[in-house]
Structures are given as C-alpha cells and as structure tokens.
Specification:
The chain is an alpha/beta fold. It has a single domain, classed as Metal-dependent hydrolases (TIM Barrel, Alpha-Beta Barrel). It is about 40% helix and about 15% strand. It has 9 helices and 8 strands. An 8-stranded parallel beta sheet has the order 1-2-3-4-5-6-7-8. Helix 3 packs parallel to helix 4 and helix 5 packs parallel to helix 6. The protein is globular, with a radius of gyration of 18 Å. The protein starts with a strand and ends with a helix.
Amino acid sequence: MVDSHVHLQEFIKPEDLAVYLKEIGRQDVTGLLCVSYDIESSRKAVELLKAYEKISETASLHIAAGIHPQYIGDNPDRQIAALSEILNDNKNISAIGEIGLDYRKDMPDRELQKEVFRKQLEMSLDYSLPVSIHSVSACEDTLKILHAYPDAKGIMHGYAYSAEAAKEFIKQGFRLGVGTTLLKPGAKKLPETVKAVPQEYLVTETDLPFSYKPTSIVQAQSVKPDSLPQKKDTLVPEDRNAFECEYFTPDTLTETAELHAKFLSKLVNTIQLINPH
C-alpha cells in the first residue's frame, strides 16, 4: 500500500522517522509521499527527507515541496523564489505540491491563484518533477490551465469532480487521488468515478492529519466535514509533542502507524469492492 498524500511533517519529527517507517512497514505500507503546502512545511519535509537518507527501512519516503493556493500570501513572488531555492538545494525532492486552485469563500484572489499555479507548473517542467494538484470548485479553470502545460504530469489530490472530468484529467496525464470522501456515508460522486475509472489511474491517499481524526475507522467515517478544523488553525506548534493535536491523538508511534495503515487498507479494500477490475 502507498499513501500518495500525507502531511507527515505535521505529526512526525525527524528523530522519530526511523521508528515510524519501521512500524508502518510492518503494516504493509510500502511508500509515503509527504506533501507540503507552504515554505515552512516544505522545509520541514526536507528535514524528514534528510533523516530518511540516513536510515534503511522497508517503507520508502518521498517528499513534495510547494505552495497551496490558500497560502500564496501577500508576496507570492518571494515564496516562489524561496521554493526555487529549496528545489535547487535538495535534488532528491520527488514532486512539487500541493499546488492548484481553490475557489471556496475567503480564499485568495482567483487571478493571483492562477498566476501562482502557472508558475509552479512551469517549475515542475524546469525541474522535471510531477505535481500534486489541489483543486476545489475550480474544475474548468484547472483543466484549462493544464491544457496549456501538456507535459505536466502528476496526481489530482482529493479528487472530487465528475467521472467525465476524470477522463479529461487522465488524458492530461494525471492519476486521481482517492481519499476520505470515499469512506463517508452517502458519498455518491467519488464512488461513481472510482467505478468508471480503471484502477491503474487511482491512487490512495490519507491527507493526514488534515483529513479527520482517525481514532478508529468506524469513528472516522462518522465525522462530518463541517466539524473538521481548518488547516490554517491546526498546525502543531514547535513546543508541543508531535501527537498532542486535538484532531490526531494516538499515544505512540506504533498506534499512529497502525491507524495510518488501517486507513489505507480501508481505502484499498473499498476501491476494490467498487471497481474489482
């Protein structure tokens, strides 16, 4: 099993990485892509990567550095420059992300989002890296921009659009990230997409710890989206233990790894039930 989108830097410290990867490897997880959303989280991901390069575990770790549309800030050019510096200094970064468009209320100006999205797509081509794309209520504009970058490839994180749109993203060279929505009671659109799309174009993801509190698979499925904390309010402060977070509170590295793996296993099994081919 592979988790194609997890914010590992939010709940695992570099000094705990070896233990965590050993434990999650025992749970049949073979790889993790640690995704970032701003410059600070990108730098933390780099620290995890440096720790990983000194150990040898069954579960592999890859990282993505990037700027989420919610966090483009007042000076995106400075952030783009900082991201470029991170990419130049760390040749083992595997992807750029998460990047994209988010047209929900109270998000940054849409034209500015598009500009930053384009710049990061251009960077992905310059560095020959795939991208992890966050796209919410912006299907048409996301596809339009991607059509202008036919060589850009990667994953549509947290895919939530139609099966028809999925075919367009696949034609563009993208796979679809399947995560928490598939496990929610009453979910309709994503199961329809999973059923219609060949399994080779689907990848599992957890988006932990920003998805929901996985104290158990059953409880996790009962959490309502409007009860979840906002990402900007849920960063773990530097002076707190990595697991003292109100929405992700396992007591040990072992417990965390077990929950993480169970979540992935549930996603894999659900996808196979919906689309056995």
